[in-house]
Amino acid sequence: MATSLKNLSAYNSDSIPENPKYRYGIIVSKWNETVTTPLAQGAIDTLLKHGCPRENIHLHFVPGSFELPLGGQFLFESVNPDAVILIGCVIQGETRHFDFICQAVAQGCMDLGLKYNKPSIFGVLTTENLQQAIDRSGGIHGNKGVEAALTAIKMVDLDKRIGS
Ligand code: DLZ
């Protein structure tokens, strides 16, 4: 597999716009917390690194990934951030929960962005096992939270430049 040797979070900082004045919401699922905590930290560290003040980051938690889109909606309806990042980790089990949750949160994330005309970033790991999730939350394959934050910064920049 192409990803087996790759740190997917490696990037060139010069290609990322600085955007100190923008506001970000981060909703984090408590389910598989040992994975979602480093994902959230990766997202926060990345926003701070690229100039976002800590007070412009609105961090909240929901019980599981299924609740992420509604958590994002609560944020758009309250503090109205420039983008939200949904962070979760769904691990394949023996039942069809995995399929239902992944489908719902992916669709919910897309619907959320389209409803509020603001970036809604899918920072959810969907893995076969815990090791794959660990590898992608600060392990050998990088940190999906970092990638989610970079995507949020780029999409907010695009939104502002287009002037939607
Ligand atoms: C119920 C459930 C299961 C089985 N697995 C996960 C998971 O791997 N990752 C996750 O974020 N949440 C899981 N949940 C919880 C659901 O997302 C949700 O919180 C409950 O079904 C209540 O709506």
Could you give a short description of this structure?
The chain has helices at residues 33-49, 68-77, 97-116, 130-135, 144-162; strands at 24-29, 57-62, 83-91, 120-127, 137-139, 142-143.
Instruction: Supply Rg.
Output: 15 Å
Structural class: alpha/beta
Number of domains: 1
Count of strand segments: 6
Bin the strand percentage: 15-25%
Number of helices: 5
Show unreliable segments.
none
Give the CATH topology.
Rossmann fold
User: Given the C-alpha coordinates, what overall shape results?
Assistant: globular
Overall pLDDT? 93
Task: Report the major sheet.
Answer: 4 strands, parallel
**Helix content bin:** 40-55%
Distance between the termini: 39 Å
Order of helices and strands: EHEHEHEHEEH
> What is the assigned CATH homologous superfamily?
Lumazine/riboflavin synthase
Ions and ligands: ligand DLZ
Description:
The chain is of the alpha/beta class and about 160 residues long. It is about 45% helix and about 20% strand. It has a four-stranded parallel β-sheet, with helices on both faces. The termini are far apart. The mean pLDDT is about 95.
List keywords for this structure.
two-stranded antiparallel sheet, alpha/beta, 21% strand, 164 residues, Rossmann fold
Write the layout of secondary structure elements.
Elements (H helix, E strand, L loop, with lengths): L23 E6 L3 H17 L7 E6 L5 H10 L5 E9 L5 H20 L3 E8 L2 H6 L1 E3 L2 E2 H19 L2
Parallel strand pairs: 1-2, 1-3, 3-4
Antiparallel strand pairs: 5-6
Helix pairs in contact: 1-5, 2-3
Bound molecules: ligand DLZ.
